[in-house]
Design brief:
heterodimer; A: mainly alpha; elongated; B: 187 residues; mainly alpha; Rna Polymerase Sigma Factor, Chain: A; Arc Repressor Mutant, subunit A; 0% strand
């Protein structure tokens, strides 16, 4: 029994003897260069965030415009005064507007 | 092109030199990684990461060691990183499965090594599993010498240790493996 286990153990320890080399994929350098180019693009966007700032500004402008028109519409529906847009904008900027 | 010339070209950012580097060393890196992770798709992914790392850090390569030695070191480091992440992922997935929210398909299969001949496959799987219990330095030494077939001199360069220390590591690795395997076969 013990001899059998010892033999199995030694055979297992030698089981890497017949290990064969495996061919790496032929198109490996294409994939690597693609990944490097993609990483460069990501780094470029991260280092040049103008487009993100521009998108943020456009988003804020649209949001404010939408809020103003919504305020006008809802106020005119209820017959209240709607001309004081500047006070609404200042409220919005201060975060005191509770329309949403 | 000599190795020194190749390194000089790589440092200038020459893409043709980089392609030459990949074509020269891809089998070496791929097989080392495959022997470490025993999973062909993951090995390909890690091999790509190794060359990306080379591309990004070739400026810092001083040429104190051979290019292949440097590549072996990066390949081993990346493989160990992958193993740690994979072990954490497996633990997390086991927990998810226990809570009924996990999926068995999310777990990376344990063994996909086409270099192991079929007759040896069962024993090789048992040996690879036993090797997972070894400390990192013993596992690296055993893999590079037994699976990659490198000499003690080459491995001592890669691991930045003396041949005497390496012999000690190999001796302890074999002893630990014998104990694990004997326990496995007894049970």
């Amino acid at each position: 029994m013990n001899n059998n286990i010892n033999q199995l153990t030694e055979e297992t320890l030698d089981s890497f003897a017949g290990i064969q080399k495996v061919e790496a994929p032929a198109d490996l350098h294409f994939k690597i260069l693609n990944r490097i180019n993609n990483q460069k693009k990501e780094v470029y966007l991260f280092r040049h965030p103008q487009w993100m700032i521009a998108a943020l500004v456009i988003g804020i402008i649209c949001n404010v415009g939408f809020a103003i028109s919504y305020h006008k519409t809802s106020s005119s529906d209820t017959g209240t005064e709607t001309t004081n847009v500047s006070s609404f904008v200042s409220q919005f900027k201060l975060g005191t507007n509770t329309i949403y | 092109m000599s190795e020194t010339q190749l390194i000089a070209e790589l440092k200038t950012g020459n893409q043709q030199a980089f392609i030459r580097l990949i074509d020269t060393y891809k089998h070496l890196v791929f097989n080392t990684v495959l022997n470490m992770v025993q999973h062909i798709e993951e090995a390909e992914d890690i091999t790509q990461e190794v060359f990306i790392q080379v591309y990004q850090s070739v400026q810092t390569f001083r040429g104190d060691s051979k290019l292949s030695t440097w590549l072996y070191r990066i390949a081993i480091t990346k493989s160990l990183d992958w193993q740690r992440k994979n072990n954490a992922k497996k633990r997390m997935n086991s927990m998810k499965i226990a809570f009924g929210i996990g999926n068995y398909e999310d777990t990376v299969p344990d063994f996909q090594h086409p270099g192991i001949i079929l007759a040896n496959k069962e024993k090789a799987i048992i040996l690879f599993n036993a090797m997972k219990k070894l400390p990192d330095n013993q596992r690296i030494a055993f893999t590079l010498i037994k699976a990659d077939g490198l000499s003690y001199e080459e491995v001592s360069d890669i691991m930045q240790t003396s041949i005497k220390s390496l012999e000690g590591l190999m001796h302890r690795a074999k002893e630990n493996l014998r104990k694990t395997l004997e326990q496995f076969y007894k049970s």
